[in-house]
Design goal:
Two copies of one chain form a homodimer.
Chain A lengths: L23 H14 L12 H8 L3 H13 L3 E3 L5 E3 L4 H5 L4 H7 L7 H10 L6 E2 L12 H14 L12 H15 L8 E4 L2 H12 L5 E6 L3 H9 L3 E8 L2 E2 L12 E4 L13 H14 L3 E4 L24 E6 L11 E4 L2 H14 L5 H12 L2 H27 L4 E3 L7 E6 L5 H10 L2 E2 L1 E2 L10 E5 L5 H20 L1
Parallel strand pairs in A: 3-14, 5-6, 5-8, 8-9, 9-10
Antiparallel strand pairs in A: 1-2, 4-11, 6-7, 10-11, 12-13, 13-16, 15-16
Helix pairs in contact in A: 1-3, 2-3, 5-10, 7-13, 8-13, 9-10, 9-12, 14-16, 15-16
Chain lengths: ~500, ~500
């Protein structure tokens, strides 16, 4: 019967070992996986009812249910029309019942994020109907459709072909970025210092794989951007959170920093707190790190999104010794779907990164790279940014108005001078899980602050970039009620 | 003086240990790296002359030169205008003097490829002036500029925004692929069985990371596609080469195959030999692998490029038990620069792959995905493929004519019925390194067969897809002369 659908009913004659440290339900998962992998239970065969299995195993029915649910989620079992359960697959799926190291790293990490909260957020973000008050993206209505159409219109004459590109990306984009970084940000970088990545997250990924030693220490602001933390953890780094004050990271708290460590920082419009590192602090951080010969990874995803004035010059613009790797992206300013980011660093470093990039995905989409080139060289990107800044500033003001209306006495918050985020600190300790769940029931998807932090906190990352301004006001009113209700308990 | 350019001349008082097993030049590299890392030798300071260092170290000058060259290639040292050497960098670059595991895996691998040949090829492919008779890409003149312009023209009305996409990619593309795979290839796959990747190389990378156990055995055709082999090796798999006959892989030679192993195969227009797995062999391979519950990775990069008739149905089209993961791409048929590939497999598997993809680069370019969708749904892609098939067939005929003119008595070769490749087997054993070098001098870049193999061979992978047909004929004439010259020696 091997390999064919069958109606065979399976006979079970096994019991979990209740003395074993392994949870009973995991023993059941393992037993069933092994039976299927061995070919003892062919595809399509039906399992006994949950009640029967609970009886045979000598366990509660809920334990059997947990095991079945896990196996169904792996695709090993599937539900029957008749309410029963069948063997669904036996080759690839079996391998997944042992989760890969990758995910283990992420879930076993230092930080306290409630993983199921993150998973809920990732899932709900693709379901319509929620007001998303923490989403770190531009609202769809801010998408500059007309500009993009114009750029598309110019592509045919610009693109000679869509062949493979070299390790650093499209040479024309390297030149355009070199000129733009100099003019707009005072960063002196030759095209040979710039590698185009499929978004800056991939840049970070490559740096982790190529440049960092396993077990070495990475200092980050606490709290910090959760996806970056995950990448460092997956690559086997030890993370250390360093508190922020109003001027940025309190670098003097990096007690064991040395040339084997690394500082990952978001100096401008920090994610999730919105903080801008001050001019003085930037100078001090550079001096401190260079004195220790400790490299710096500067994430500048939001630097162009200032409202009234430019933030102080980036760390990279101050770097005379090649100790800063700088990462920029178009994902937060215009179009994450282009998947374009740039990594700026010493030549030898970007070549190494490019080399490994070629071994993983052969470079970023050349259509995207040509579009980015056109955006920069035409000047259209800069003009667009001016409009976007005004729009974001209005959205920030709308959020701040709502906060002073509903959150006085409940929380404190910063007034961001750029970027997407307001860091809302609640006065009283409430269960963030319960606030999250109640908000979800009320149709509001929020990002609890502990997702971003090394320890507990009672904060919420608000983003005024995504939700419709009126929706955001309405959601904040409801959220304030939910929090007050929990505070009273 | 820390961190600033200086004219300080460095004093050296150290000698390598000649008893040590470490090569002398490596000891010198290590010594200099450490001095710079420690900050003892500041950036900008000048090293003593090579002659002086050779004297101090008590070694040949050529040993010092090797060490200097390595450090210059890392960006740690740089050449001076005056002919001397300076300290160039000290933070990131130092880390690279310990090559990352990644590359170690690749260079320490089983297969005998001459790594410097591969590096030469990778480099020369971006230099003009060579006739590239082995390049596995479509010629730039085959780029369908007008078609792409038309697609660009339709994009503005098709693309609603360029936001982030979910783990499987653009839903519209999933639907288009599902329909196209069914109609053109008889593969039954729901959109939920399809993950869009940034090229099929990335698909392979994700599968290696997520689905395969370290140390597990991967069977491949011998010879096989070199980049796939590298990915498996980097992920810590053990590779086993299985010989090909005229009908495809001789599966009965997979002696230790079991459910922990994996078969990676290119059944249609195999790279590099051009072989098509026969109908009978396909059935046997499926039966053999399913009997062992051994999963199959089917790479179908060339399947659409048949000349007179479709190759036998893909393995995936025969797969009733979810044991085949199938990979397709547009890179070989039209536009590698789009970076679009697709992975087809059981739902749970593609979700896991998509999940990990989100953690690395957040998905493929959505512009590329929209363009691919439009190519498929408009039917323009199928029409284009018909033209391309005719063109490639004419190029194949041109290559075969040249071969019968110049290579009779020197080599044997196959007559491919699709794809890009002719596998040219030389009758006599000649040094492939010397043939490669002489051809390079004559302006011809070729891909020696041993790049693709587990052991020595005396073959050359010819591609009729890239070089201009007249250039190819000319190059083959010159190559025949070079080989004859070496055979006579």
């Amino acid at each position: 019967m091997k390999g064919f659908r069958t109606n065979q009913m399976i006979a079970v004659d096994w019991k979990p070992n209740k003395q074993d440290k392994t949870p009973i339900y995991r023993q059941i998962v393992k037993y069933i996986s092994e039976k299927i992998a061995a070919g003892d239970w062919p595809i399509g065969s039906r399992l006994p009812s949950q009640r029967d299995m609970a009886q045979t195993f000598g366990v509660n029915r809920s334990t059997v249910v947990s095991a079945m649910e896990e196996l169904i989620s792996y695709g090993i079992l599937e539900s029957d029309f008749g309410g029963g359960t069948r063997v669904a697959s036996n080759t690839w799926s079996i391998r997944m019942s042992q989760p890969p190291d990758w995910n283990k790293h992420i879930s076993n990490g230092h930080f306290r994020a409630n993983l199921s909260t993150i998973q809920t957020i990732n899932k709900k973000e693709f379901e319509p109907g929620y007001i998303r008050i923490g989403t770190g993206e531009l609202a769809p209505e801010l998408y500059p459709g007309k500009l993009v159409s114009r750029i598309f219109g110019r592509m045919p004459e610009k693109i000679p072909n869509l062949g493979y590109l070299g390790p650093l990306g499209l040479p024309e984009l390297g030149q355009a970025l070199s000129a733009w970084l100099k003019e707009r940000q005072g960063i002196e970088a030759k095209p040979s210092n710039i590698m185009v990545a499929s978004g800056s997250l991939q840049g970070l990924q490559l740096i982790s794989v190529c440049m960092l030693k396993k077990g070495s220490r990475v200092y980050t602001e606490a709290p910090s951007y959760v996806k970056s933390l995950q990448i460092f953890q997956s690559a086997g780094m030890r993370l250390s959170g360093v508190p922020l004050d109003d001027e940025g990271i309190t670098y003097w708290n990096m007690k064991e920093a040395d040339s084997d460590s690394l500082l990952y920082t978001i100096p401008s419009f920090h994610n999730p707190t919105g903080t801008v590192m001050s001019e003085v602090r930037r100078r001090e951080v550079m001096q401190f790190c260079q004195g220790l010969r400790m490299p710096i990874l500067e994430d500048d995803a939001y630097g162009q999104l200032w409202f009234d004035e430019n933030p102080p010059k980036s760390l990279k613009a101050r770097d005379k010794t090649g100790s800063v790797i700088y990462m920029g992206t178009i994902s937060k300013t215009m179009a994450p779907g282009l998947r374009i980011g740039w990594v700026v660093g010493p030549e030898a470093v970007v070549y190494r990164l490019g080399d490994v990039k070629m071994q993983t995905d052969y470079g970023a989409s050349s259509v995207s790279q040509w579009m980015m080139t056109e955006l920069l060289t035409s000047g259209d990107y800069d003009i667009y940014l001016e409009t976007l800044r005004r729009e974001l500033k209005a959205r920030r003001d709308n959020a701040l108005t709502a906060l002073s209306q509903y959150f006085k006495g409940i929380a404190t918050w910063n007034k961001p001078s750029g970027g997407f985020y307001i860091w809302l600190r609640l006065h009283c300790k409430v269960s963030m899980d319960k606030v999250f769940a109640d908000a979800l029931k009320a149709g509001i998807l929020l990002n609890p602050g502990n997702m971003y932090d090394y320890g507990e906190n009672h904060a919420i990352r608000l983003s005024y970039a995504y939700a419709d301004p009126e929706d955001l006001r309405r959601a904040l009113k409801i959220l304030a009620d939910i929090i007050e209700k929990h505070q009273k308990r």
